[in-house]
Amino acid sequence: MPELPEVETVRRGLAPVLEGARLVRVRQNRPDLRFPFPDRFPDRLEGATVERIERRAKYLMMPLSTGETWVTHLGMTGRFTLDGEQLGEFEAEAPVVGKHEHLSLCAERDGVLTRVGFADARRFGFMGLIPTEAVEAHPWFAGIGPEPLGNHFSSAVLSEAFRGKAQNVKVSLLDQRIVAGLGNIYVCEALYRSGISPLTAAGKVSRPRLDRLTAEIRRVLEDAIAAGGATLRDFANAEGGQGYFQHSFDAYGREGEPCRTRSETGAACSGVIRRIVQGGRSTFYCPVCQKR
Length: 292
Hints:
By secondary structure, the chain is α+β, with helices and mostly antiparallel strands. The chain is built from six helices and ten strands.
C-alpha cells in the first residue's frame, strides 16, 4: 500500500496540472471502488476549480471552489495518471484508458486541457466529497495524530502518547491516532536507524531515544520523498514513473541479509536482519544493534 512518501510524491506530481484548474468532462466508469462513489459525483466535480492539493496522512485532499473537498485514498493499487500529451481545445470527452480506469476527466488550466485518469486494479481505494468546513470532523480525519513532517510532531508528543504504554513501539507507531501517515515500511526503517528494537514497549523508550527516533522518522520520510517513494508492486507516480527508495532499504525486506550498521570505529555489526510478525504485519530488524 502506498505510504506517506508515495502519496506525497503523487500530490507533487498532480499539483502543477490540477492546482487552479477547472474540472471538465468528468466521467465515472463504474459505481464504486472499495465504497460507492459519492452521489452525483461527476456532476459535483464538473465545473469546479481545484483551489489546491494537500495531503493529510495517506489521503489526497483537493478543496474545490464549490465548498467541497475531493478526498482520495489510493488503497493498494490506486493511481492517478497524466497522459503527458495535452488534449486539443475542442476534445469532446475525457477518454477511458485501460480496463481498470474508473474515473477520467479533463483539467482546464490557462486554456489548455490535460486528461487525468484514476485507475485501481484491486479497487481498495476510495473517494469522497466532504464539505470543506467539516473535513477535520469527518470520521476519516477526526482524532488523527500530527503529521510527522509538521511542526506539531516532536519527541514530547511521542513521550506523552507512549506514557505507560505496554504495546510494542512498532505497532504503536502505526496507530494513526499517535502519528498520521506512518506505514509499515518507514516505521521499520526509522526504528532501524534509531537503534531501537521493535520489541520494546513504547512506554519504556527513554526521552533521549525518542529524540533520535523523531529525527529519524523525519529523515527517512524526507529521503523517501526525495527518491520518489518506493515501488514494491504497483506504485507509480502521476507521470507513470516509479520510485527508487526501495533500493535504499536498510531493514525492510532484507530478511537473512547482513546488518549494514557500522560502529564509530567502522566495525561492521555481526547481526543478520530478522523478520517477525507484529500486529499482523511483517517487521524487519537487526536483533544485535537494535536494543530494547
